[in-house]
Amino acid sequence: MARRQVALVDLLDRLLGSGVVLAGSLTLGIADVDLVRIDLRALISSVNERVPSPWEGGNPL
């Protein structure tokens, strides 16, 4: 399989253009006792005319 170099900007443009879903979980514990659990679910996508911003005016703050 041939190696192909891709610029980071091109990779980010392609990922944000189609969207990326991140999911994961982290559990911290001692002696088989769970102390902290963190779950992560995130959708990262670009905002354009077809996919508008969920915030009024496009600014979350």
Your description of this structure?
It contains one helix and two strands, in the order H-E-E. With 61 residues, the protein is an alpha+beta fold. A two-stranded antiparallel ribbon has the order 1-2. A hairpin with a 2-residue loop joins strand 1 and strand 2 (33-44). The radius of gyration is 18 Å and the shape is flat. This is Gas vesicle protein. Belongs to the gas vesicle GvpA family.
Given as residue ranges, the uncertain stretches (5+ residues, pLDDT < 50) are: none
| Quaternary organisation of the protein chains | single chain
Instruction: Report the radius of gyration as a whole number of Å.
Output: 18 Å
| Shape, principal axes of CA atoms | flat
Mean pLDDT: 78
Q: Roughly what percent helix?
A: 10-25%
Question: How many helices?
Answer: 1
Largest sheet: 2 strands, antiparallel
Q: How many extended strands?
A: 2
Strand order of the largest sheet: 1-2
What is the terminal separation in angstroms? 47 Å
Strand content: 35-45%
Spell out the helices and strands N to C.
HEE
Content-based structural category? alpha+beta
Family: Belongs to the gas vesicle GvpA family.
Subcellular location: Gas vesicle
InterPro entries: Gas-vesicle_GvpA-like, GvpA
Main location: other
